[in-house]
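pls design
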């Protein structure tokens, strides 16, 4: 039986700053880190470094604002999801817009993680092929079978009842993210030490040499979108905060966890992005562990890709649990007496503990995984998809709603200095998001010119 008696009468929460930090690192240090060398190559040393640092500061600042908005301003009751926080603080149209932005992004991210994991699985197979037949061998393989394998594993993991049961998976995923980031970092340093690094510049890829002027603009915009995606986690921040114990105050603990998570992430991002660019130069691959900038030692490249796969198994759950909860809560409210929705008797599973079977959970979550897997097969565009997801989520979820809720809670007067600078920050980030989205859409259009459905090949 689950214990009850938390500060809002609900299930006892057991989360701490450590588990929250693990959730954040799992959510933030995802597949985005693998594209940072490519992003820096498009922007160059100066703009690339500045962009990384700015996104880090903005994400941290707005996340700190959001941690204070996770309780109803009137009743003080905890909000268990992002859209509930928006509803209680802003209501009306903002609630509907937030729901669309958040859940489209969560579903899109799960599709992106399916694509990324399949590329890493294929990279392991290709790495062994290169080791056997040489670097000139094509060794191309279809990604579709690996997407199916990832989907089958997710069908099992998706039976995890809720966010509160993900602590172990998130801690394991966070360790994996450190693992593959460190391996990538070490390989980049080794490549630089060998004197095999590529050509770099203050402004990135050279117009007239590497790209045309129009390509330079589009690729720079797409790179900004990739960096935005790399820092995205605000869309699950409220859900993570809802796992924390009520004492000490969960907003204070979440601020600590957020600061730790963003600081660690930024350290890895700056290191991987800048050293990755130093290693590969303007020809940095879109994913430096699967684009085969590194071939040897092949077993270490394989290990890094295995870490990525394990990490994304956990990250997928962090991003999909809010979607699962939304649909299941709606079903429970709509048909409270339905036997189909009722959980079965507790089953004791060795090591895993008590589990309650639910037919709704089995059917609905399995269907969700199947749909996202099929979508991944239809749209296998790694960098362009990451950039578009980052651009679409960054402004509304990371900037706009946290700022507007902060203004509403503190009743900051319109046109006051504080109000003005917050709104200017929001507008600037909106412009950046729109430009980044345009760059990513242009990249997707380019892919579609030669695209064949269900024919993703690594």
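designed seq:
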């Amino acid at each position: 039986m689950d214990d009850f008696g938390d500060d809002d009468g609900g299930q006892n929460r057991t989360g701490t700053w450590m588990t929250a930090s693990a959730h954040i690192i799992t959510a933030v240090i995802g597949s985005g880190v693998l594209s940072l060398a490519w992003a820096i190559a498009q922007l160059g040393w100066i703009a690339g470094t500045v962009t990384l640092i700015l996104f880090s500061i903005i994400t941290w600042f707005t996340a700190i604002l959001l941690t204070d908005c996770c309780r109803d301003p009137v009743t003080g009751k905890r909000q268990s999801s992002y859209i509930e926080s928006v509803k209680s603080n802003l209501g009306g149209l903002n609630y509907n817009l937030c729901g669309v932005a958040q859940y489209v992004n969560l579903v899109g991210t799960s599709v992106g993680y399916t694509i990324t994991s399949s590329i890493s699985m294929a990279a392991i197979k290709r790495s062994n092929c290169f080791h056997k037949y040489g670097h000139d061998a094509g060794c191309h393989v279809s990604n579709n079978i690996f997407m199916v394998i990832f989907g089958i594993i997710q069908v099992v993991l998706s039976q995890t009842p809720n966010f509160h049961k993900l602590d172990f998976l998130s801690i394991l995923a966070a360790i994996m993210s450190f693992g593959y980031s460190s391996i990538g970092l070490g390989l980049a340093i080794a490549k630089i030490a060998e004197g095999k690094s590529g050509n770099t510049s203050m402004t990135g890829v050279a117009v007239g040499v590497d790209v045309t002027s129009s390509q330079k603009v589009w690729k720079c915009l797409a790179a900004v979108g990739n960096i935005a995606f790399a820092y995205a986690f605000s869309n699950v921040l409220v859900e993570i905060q809802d796992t924390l114990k009520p004492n000490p105050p969960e907003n204070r603990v979440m601020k600590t966890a957020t600061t730790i998570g963003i600081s660690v992430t930024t350290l890895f991002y700056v290191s991987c992005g800048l050293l990755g660019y130093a290693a590969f130069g303007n020809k940095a691959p879109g994913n430096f562990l699967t684009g085969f900038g590194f071939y040897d030692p092949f077993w270490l490249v394989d290990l890094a890709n295995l870490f990525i796969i394990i990490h994304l198994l956990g990250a997928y759950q962090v991003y999909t649990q809010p979607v699962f909860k939304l649909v299941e809560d709606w079903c429970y409210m709509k048909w409270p007496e339905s036997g189909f929705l009722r959980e079965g008797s507790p089953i004791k599973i060795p090591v895993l503990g008590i589990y309650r079977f639910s037919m709704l959970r089995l059917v609905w979550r399995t269907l969700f995984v199947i749909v996202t897997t099929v979508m991944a097969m239809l749209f296998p565009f790694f960098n362009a998809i990451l950039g578009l997801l980052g651009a679409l989520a960054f402004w509304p979820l990371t900037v706009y709603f946290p700022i507007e809720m902060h203004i509403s809670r503190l009743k900051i007067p319109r046109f006051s200095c504080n109000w003005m600078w917050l709104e200017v920050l929001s507008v600037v980030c909106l412009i950046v998001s729109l430009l980044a989205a345009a760059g990513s859409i242009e990249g997707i259009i380019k892919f579609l010119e030669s695209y064949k459905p269900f024919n993703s090949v690594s």
